[in-house]
Specification:
The protein starts with 6 loop residues before the first strand and ends in a 22-residue tail after the last helix. Helix 8 crosses helix 13, helix 13 packs antiparallel against helix 19 and helix 15 crosses helix 19. With about 475 residues, the chain is an alpha/beta fold. The chain contains 20 helices and eight strands.
Length: about 475
């Protein structure tokens, strides 16, 4: 064990480099390797030039440098590159070694890898890592799952390098078996899609309806970030809006093309929600909004042909501005409620016993969706671990009650002015649907039985009994 390192890192893009530096700064000795060995040379000669970072230039040298049982973290591109790296590693590993995939892998791939490696005596961990480059360096949120036998071995390192909340608790806790960790990261990213879309809708309404400048909108976000909307994404939005393009002198946000990219995790969230029957309309609308934004050329052409209302606002500007903030807060609550409802339904589907309070704690620091009200979410689940929906927790019920008149006004006003606000509207529709004792699904069931004999249940019979009618036909 003398001279051996505590953990190995494969993949020296920015996230891998920063995680290695984070580990080294916390006193761990780290071996590093990259398929392109020139990256290793540059790293150990530059940022990684310190005693407890050991550069290696072949997989054999890399594996041999790590103390047993080996702990190896992969920060490589999700998909086939992960499998290819594991395949090359396997002949060099010993029974009981641990492989940690810290990338944005699809959770079903992690389920497969956990089982396949267990058959070979290797412990696999799928760890969601959130926080971007800065979080990786200073302390990310880490969501590990996989082979539970691996947790005691990796726990000291992962919890040490993770972000800490005010009381010192690390934003890292074991999530569950096989793909649970990467599933929680996927839902985190889906919520992130919703958050970003809702913030952009608030910006669009201020810009379009109130004709505010980017600097003035930045001041609003600055004010919001001191209250109930306090969050990382609100904070960086303020900074984004204040940046000026050095070439034109215009606000940078006005120079950036309005076509949003995506890497697929929001789509995965929506697809899986559909697979298991979980209602996550706000995440889905955020994904679709990015898809519509990508149709830039078509939208430019359509703008010259398709008619809509004139964008004009004639009410009290300061009151409407306050309404926008409340609409954003209420929509955000519904988005998180959908995310935790998805986690609950996925837990039943895949056999995972998620502890929602622990997940809220992991998201309170380090990660992209970190926000002040995650502490309230943790308290809600601590008070009632069986809480079926965040909307039923007293804190959030009261918050929605206080905000909903403003929320409805913003959604209705946006529709009247022709300003698209799909995330705000879908969150409100989710709230109204969830609070409705009766929905028009009875008519849908009648239609399905009429054309396809799909049967229906009756309100005057026990659930689970199905009936069919002979419908009148012309």
């Amino acid at each position: 064990m003398d001279g051996k390192t505590d953990i190995g890192m494969i993949g020296l893009a920015v996230m891998g480099e920063n995680l290695a530096l984070n580990m080294a700064s916390k006193g761990f000795k780290v071996s590093v390797f990259n398929r392109t060995v020139e990256k290793v040379e540059r790293f150990v000669a530059g940022r990684g030039n310190r005693e407890n970072i050991v550069g290696t230039f072949s997989l054999e040298e890399f594996v041999e440098s790590i103390g047993r049982p080996r702990k190896i973290m992969l920060m490589v591109k999700a998909g086939p590159p992960v499998d290819a790296t594991i395949e090359k590693l396997l002949p060099l590993l010993d029974e009981g070694d641990v492989v940690i995939d810290g990338g944005n892998s699809y959770f079903k791939d992690t389920i497969r890898r956990t089982g396949a490696l267990a058959e070979k005596g290797i412990l696999f961990v799928g760890a969601g890592v959130s926080g971007g480059e800065e979080g990786a360096l200073k302390g990310p949120s880490i969501m590990p799952g996989g082979n539970p036998d691996a947790w005691p071995l990796v726990k000291p390192i992962l919890r040490t390098i993770a972000a800490k909340v005010a009381d010192g608790s690390p934003c890292c806790e074991w999530v569950g078996p096989d793909g649970a960790g990467h599933y929680v990261k996927m839902v985190h990213n889906g919520i992130e899609y919703g958050d970003m879309q809702m913030i952009s809708e608030a910006y669009a309404i201020m810009r379009g309806a109130l004709e505010m400048s980017a600097e003035d909108i930045a001041d609003v976000f600055d004010e919001w970030n001191r209250g109930e909307l306090d969050s990382y994404l609100i904070e960086i939005t303020r900074e984004v809006l204040r940046k000026t393009d050095p070439e034109t002198g215009k606000p940078m946000v006005d120079i950036i093309l309005d076509a949003a990219g995506q890497k697929g995790t929001g789509k995965w969230t929506s697809q899986n929600a559909l697979d298991i029957g979980a209602p996550t309309p706000t995440v889905a609308e955020a994904v679709f909004a990015r898809c519509v934004s990508a149709l830039k050329e078509e939208r430019v052409a359509a703008s010259k042909t398709l008619r809509g209302p004139a964008t004009s606002f004639s009410g009290n500007r300061s009151e409407f501005l306050a309404d926008i903030g409340k609409a954003l807060y209420a929509s955000k609550i519904c988005s998180y409620a959908q995310g935790f409802q998805l986690l609950e339904m996925a837990g039943r589907e895949y056999g995972w016993d998620f502890r929602h309070g622990d997940i809220a704690l992991m998201w309170r620091g380090g990660c992209i969706i970190r926000a002040k009200f995650l502490g309230d979410i943790k308290k809600a689940f601590d008070d009632d671990p069986k809480l079926p929906n965040l909307l039923l927790a007293p804190f959030f019920k009261n918050a929605i009650d206080e905000a909903q008149d403003s929320w409805r006004n913003v959604v209705a006003s946006s529709a009247r002015m022709g300003i698209p606000a799909p995330a705000f509207a879908s969150a409100l529709a989710y709230y109204d649907s969830y609070r409705s004792e009766r929905l028009p699904a009875n008519l849908i069931q009648a239609q399905r039985d009429y054309f396809g004999a799909h049967t229906y249940e009756r309100i005057d019979r026990p659930r689970g009994e199905f009936f069919h009618s002979d419908w009148p036909r012309d």
